[in-house]
Every structure is written in C-alpha cells, then in structure tokens.
Design goal:
Largest sheet: 7 strands, mixed
Number of strands: 7
Strand order of the largest sheet: 3-2-1-4-5-7-6
Helix content: 25-40%
Radius of gyration: 16 Å
Number of helices: 6
Strand content: 25-35%
Structural class: alpha/beta
Order of helices and strands: HHEHEHEEHEHEE
Distance between the termini: 27 Å
Oligomer: single chain
Shape: globular
Length: 211
C-alpha cells in the first residue's frame, strides 16, 4: 500500500487541475471529483500495479485529471482521447502546468477510433458519459472501445443501477467485470436545467479483465 502522504499529494495535484469553462451538455461534460479520481488511481496502482511502468489510455479524457494522475504515478506513457477541442485545450494547459512530460492527447470520436490504437495499451481508465435519454448506450460504446484499446485491463465508472447490464455486456465482449467499490459521485449543478446545487449518484468502480 502507498504511504498516506503520497495519496494526499496525488489528491492535491488533482484539485489544482483546471476544469471546463463552458461544459457541453450534449457531451455530458462533468468533472471527475478529485477525491474520486484519487481513489480510482490509488486502487489501480496499489492493489493491482496497473499504472507504474504501463502504457495507459484515458478514454474521454476531458480536462485530463485521470491522465495527469496516471503520469504522476509513474506510468510509462499516457494518451488521452477526447472528441472536444475546447476540452483538449484545457487538457494541454493542465499538462504543461503540472509539468508531466509523458502525456499526449489525441482528438478522436469514440465511434471512429483509428485501428492503429487497438491493443496498444496495458491499461485503460475512463469516466465515460453515463448516457442520457438523448445519448443512450454511449457508456457501453465507451466500454467496447476501451476493451479494444487494451491488451490487459480496463477501469471504469458506471451507474450502480446499470450493474447487471454492464456485466452482461462485458461478458459478451470477452471480459470479466468485477465491482471493486461502490462510490458516491457528487455531481454539482453544472447546466441551467439543474434544479439542485448537487446530486449524489451511486456509481460502481469496475475492473474489467480481458480474457
């Protein structure tokens, strides 16, 4: 296990990362809370050794919290994939501000992932869109692509209410899904249609082992 001091320093790094200036509802652009991202990355490395020295992909990387966190934890190389050019501008600023040199970014639609990236990563981590009524099924599309990118393992967050469906889809894609933790995603008011200051969403933290 990691020393507590290192864990606190990781969370401090994630807390200092700039976020979306104008999040886009169509892309479900929500920030990964620093404490949640820290827990995910800590578990990946301390329990499974799936970050340090590994080639890591961050699918739907947004402003880069998980990518930068993986780099801080000594990943060999990290590549973030993101469709939104505005998010990638913030991503690159964050990478420069955090002084991590082993991080790159690719602008790419998850539905048009180039074949050259298939099976090029040891580990894929993602906090995919959960899939609104206008974007239904996008979470499973992310999972499908993540399993193509990885030659070993995928870590992902999904709504607890979809657990049985997620496990079935993973099995159909020749991967074994395991819920490592049930977490509370504190979703702050981000868009004009949000009526509450924040909403707690129950999410599962999954590890998918490719069979």
């Amino acid at each position: 296990m990691w020393p507590c001091l290192k864990l606190r320093r990781l969370e401090e790094r994630l807390q200092s990362i700039s976020t979306f200036e104008r999040p886009k509802v169509a892309l479900e652009q929500y920030v990964t809370p620093p404490h949640l991202g820290c827990h995910v990355l800590h578990t990946m490395q301390s329990q499974y050794g799936d970050v340090a020295g590994k080639a890591v992909a961050d699918l739907g990387c947004g402003c880069g919290a998980l990518s930068i966190g993986a780099a801080v934890l000594d990943a060999a190389v990290v590549v973030g994939f993101e469709v939104d050019a505005d998010a990638l501008d913030v991503f690159r600023e964050n990478v420069e501000d955090q002084g991590v040199s082993n991080v790159d970014a690719v602008q790419c639609d998850v539905n048009r992932m180039p074949d050259r990236f298939h099976k090029q990563f040891d580990t894929v981590v993602m906090n995919p869109p959960f899939g609104t009524k206008h974007n239904e099924g996008i979470d499973m599309k992310f999972l499908q692509v993540a399993l193509r990118l990885s030659n070993n393992v995928v870590y992902s967050l999904h709504k607890t209410s979809t657990r049985s469906h997620v496990l079935k889809v993973a099995e159909s894609l020749c991967a074994k899904g395991e819920v490592l933790a049930e977490l509370r995603y504190d979703l702050p008011s981000t868009f004009k249609f949000h009526k509450k200051k924040s909403v707690d969403i129950q999410v599962d933290f999954f590890r998918f082992q490719i069979l």
